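Quick one - inputs below.
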Amino acid sequence: MKILLTNDDGIYAPGLLALYECLTSYHEVHVVAPESEMSAVGHCITLSRPLRIQKVSRKGAFFGYAVTGTPADCVKIAVQELFNGTPPDIILSGINLGANVGVNILYSGTVSAATEGAFLGVRSAAISLDATKDPDFRFAAQFSRKVIRFMFSSGLKVNTALNVNIPGIPPEKIKGVCVTRQATARVEERFERRSDPRGNVYYWLAGGKESVEKSKPEVDSVALSENKISITPLYYDLTCEEEYERLKNQPLPSFEELRLDL
Amino acid sequence: MKILLTNDDGIYAPGLLALYECLTSYHEVHVVAPESEMSAVGHCITLSRPLRIQKVSRKGAFFGYAVTGTPADCVKIAVQELFNGTPPDIILSGINLGANVGVNILYSGTVSAATEGAFLGVRSAAISLDATKDPDFRFAAQFSRKVIRFMFSSGLKVNTALNVNIPGIPPEKIKGVCVTRQATARVEERFERRSDPRGNVYYWLAGGKESVEKSKPEVDSVALSENKISITPLYYDLTCEEEYERLKNQPLPSFEELRLDL
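Output:
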């Protein structure tokens, strides 16, 4: 299978290398990833400046292409330029250092690379490990092979991306695998107000831990807190269906009289 | 009413000024916007560097605060720092120069500011004018007053954002207002491959025009192409409900045997 790997921690991140090393014996693996760390870039694309591509070696051998852009840029340019119009069979984004669950996925470069793949009609998955330090990516990398198989065995639609989160605990403590929804609970966060050495005020975003949504047991953050692997199918449609159906039947804003005000 | 204005074209953009000048006679208006242009930043937040805030004057009077961050940063810091914990009644993001419809809204800083407001529980709307040059923002600014009223009269849920797109044509040619869904059709785009003066290759993203989705008449891009104002309710949940329901009943990837491989 022809697989494109990308991430948002940058081409030198250990999570990407772990994925590469695990998959390269079984598949034709191509790496196109950001030159530098791109966390919390969201679904960002680069319009105002050009992109450059550079070959990168790791462990003394050719590893992949570094792009001076975001994860979504990497997916776009890989599918459209490097594969000469023949898209890969699968796109995997990760392994991210840190979970991507709840509303935080809207900020996630890792997830947006998978969503971009889905835009382009390629089965895609984001893989994240819920760890912050001393991560062991080996289990997550091996589980990614299972995710690839699942994408085909389950008949996953090509426009759907999977968001996979793996607990950062010893594998024997993992309690199961479940299909989940994205949590929508509010994230607790705040700004720290500080002064620089010249007395100027600056702010730094702190907190941001997803609060576990007790009311909805089927969401990603709850599964992860219960030491389960969560798999959430994502689709790039932000329409609120409930409000769409309701608002259609409300009196809409008039605009005719505004013509006279000008 | 206490209204927060922001945008992604930056604090000096004419669309923001038009909105400010139209609303300031009727409401308590606060401006917190990016210091510089932030188009296509998506739902990006700044974690790796601190944010600074600076007072900005326009036309010789205090206008608002410029933030060294993205539209989502502006909304976060405004709600949490500048309003001292008392959030505004309404957040408006815009008026953007250019439409924000279809899958492109996932790249849009204008829309993500409204989504961020919805995260924070504030009724929010993104306002975009489908024009590229010589824009006349006056009608769109006046229509924004109607949008504000609609947000209350329709009982819009506080966690829902409205994505409003206004045709960039003379107001008397506008054909109506309609509640729409986000289009999901693929966007046609490509990279231009160029060489710099030193012979190095670079790529520049071109195209990106939303293709009109003929099969679904109720979507934003179709309404706009028919010279109608479109209003799409958005919710920050990317879960694909259809695939969620289906995948739940599929055989899930096993993981137990992976423990032994390590």
